[in-house]
Specification:
The protein has 255 residues and is an alpha/beta fold. The chain contains ten helices and seven strands.
């Protein structure tokens, strides 16, 4: 079963995800980010009433809906999964949120004060085209807020261990800074969330394992096995320093 068929995964994993996060930290995110981190990154990027936000690869838009409720903004979420966008639309009723089903890049037309890309930049092997598209969608002074799985590219052996390795393209920080700078984006803020994300990866793996019979009944044993293997491998890499999880805000500057 493919994860872009999002409804079965949402139903299967929801109870375990709620159990894995500390009270108040689960907002229907499909990642290792806590609600407090989502809000902190959005605030660093200047999200506030009247600010236009483009959320790339938003999934079911748990973080986007949370940010819209908490900070106020005009919001557009984009994802390639029609199933995920359908869930996002249904759950965003009453919020000033719009959604589009689309592959990225290219980005939707127009400019936005803030572009968000949470926990998915690793899925883009061609980060140069992505970053250039983000820069073109920002006015001077606009902000790109994202998380980065930082490290050297995976070896063949590491790719063999990681489920869905075709979506895992690590990037060294110096290389990412160069890509940003070439597109007219300057890093204004950075934080290292490796330790907290390792804790969440462990908690999610434990919660998935504890709820295994119910999860398997909905998505099957193979899908659960791949989820557990991926979460345990991320925990291993984050603990050893093989990968760092960084949060960054980069500002578009005048050329």
């Amino acid at each position: 079963m493919r994860q872009d068929e999002r409804a079965p995964f949402e139903e299967a994993l929801r109870r375990a995800r709620e159990a894995a996060y500390e009270p108040g930290e689960y907002v229907e995110q499909e990642s290792f980010m806590r609600a407090g981190e989502i809000r902190a990154l959005a605030e660093r990027a200047g999200v506030a009433p009247g600010v236009s936000v483009l959320d790339l690869c938003c999934g079911v838009a748990g973080p986007g809906r949370f940010v819209t409720r908490e900070l106020g903004c005009s919001y557009l979420g984009v994802d390639a999964s029609a199933s995920a966008i359908g869930i996002a639309r249904a759950r965003a009723r009453g919020l000033p949120c719009r959604f589009e089903v689309a592959e990225v890049p290219p980005l939707p037309p127009g400019t936005f004060d803030v572009v968000l890309l949470l926990e998915t930049i690793l899925a883009f092997p061609d980060k140069k085209t992505l970053v250039e598209g983000v820069a073109a969608a920002l006015p001077v002074g606009g902000r790109f807020a994202f998380t980065l799985e930082e490290g050297r590219p995976l070896t063949e052996g590491e790719r063999n261990r990681m489920p869905d390795a075709e979506t895992v393209w690590l990037t060294p920080l110096d290389e990412m800074r160069q890509l940003l700078a070439a597109a007219g984006l300057v890093v204004r803020w950075r934080d290292d969330w490796s330790r907290s994300h390792r804790v969440v990866a462990d908690a999610l793996a434990d919660a998935f394992a504890a709820d295994a019979p119910a999860i398997v009944s909905r998505i099957g044993s193979r899908a659960l096995g791949e989820l557990l293997a991926a979460h345990r491998l991320w925990s291993e890499w984050l603990a050893s320093g093989r990968v760092r999880k960084l949060a960054l805000v980069a500002e578009r500057v005048a050329s």
